Amino acid sequence: MTDPSLTRRRFLEGAALLALAGALPAGCAVAPRTGPQASLNNVLVLVELNGGNDGLNTVVPFADPLYAKLRPTLALAPDSLVKLDTQSALHPGLAPLMTAWNGGELAIVQGVGYDKPNLSHFRSIEIWESASDSEQILPDGWLARVLVQQPGAARRLAEGAVFGRPSIGPLMGANARAVLMDSFHNFASKASKVNAPAAKPANPALAHVVRTQGEIARAGDILAARLQGPQPVVKTTFPRTGIGGQFGNAARLIATGADVPVIKVSAGSFDTHTYERNTHDRLITELGAALAAFRLAMLETGNWQRVTVMTYSEFGRRPAENSAQGTDHGTAAPQFLLGPGVRGGFHGAAPSLTDLSDSNMKHHVDFRDIYASVLRQWWNIDPRPALQRNGADLRLFV
Description:
14% strand, Alkaline Phosphatase, subunit A, 11 helices, nine-stranded mixed beta sheet, alpha/beta, globular
């Protein structure tokens, strides 16, 4: 009998290679940006907290007595927390981020969500990654829509690189080029071994497959050539965890100077319906250690000034714990931005634990306003073509 896990693994490996259809044209080279598009040298690192992260146990309103009352077993003890002010604190697993917080490099946007929230994992993450309204279906990702329109897009190595969970999400689009890989060294090795037949088949579907194989092979050659040359040494030690390895790969890819403006990593699952404490503590602690190591690696290699890290999750959790010592799908939650270009501190208002809607917290910041700030202030790109809105001025960047 065929091992189902082996079959699935082989399918995902193949899917990762096939996702490169059109990704890296032959002769692609990294070229310096000049003029008004120079800001595309900046890198956005997206961190998907898959499954719906519990925002109240991430940024903790410890001074509100309702927090402990709503969570008799899940509320974190005040003396264990990393205090940010007299009202709020970080989960103790995020203590490694305090250097960034104290240096003004960590922005916490509170109460992020959208109108008419959808509590389905699949639909809500689609809303976040396409930047659609709740009842609107868009066929492509918010980043794909805008990056492929920028001058010099065809010369770019790719619009994005994705480590971890094999979902290109915001980079999904007919003309966008997103590279899925477990590590870029393994990808170059696998991709360069793909051989395309010399003859062009008459069948259009088969011709497309052959063309795809050829592009994969060329992509592997480009990456292999880059990786065989002199490489910056990243001495920073990354945690031996899933998210730690992904951030290690992201750091090494950035250090090569590869012309890739978006890198996506993922952690989870944060879908903590039962016995949340141990799972959430572990995931948040792994995230904090990986983020801190990534920051150190970027400082070490001289790339920190051109990097912003942004977290997102399809939704938060309900303020009250359930009968299984877990939390169910909720709405408003905090979102982090990390980097020397951000305006550190709190942004937006913390959601109320008393003014609820259907037992869920109300959002104060539309997630698309954060995207608009990234496009406009980090990349100098007009957000309206991608988001159909100019976006509120959240002053997230200095």
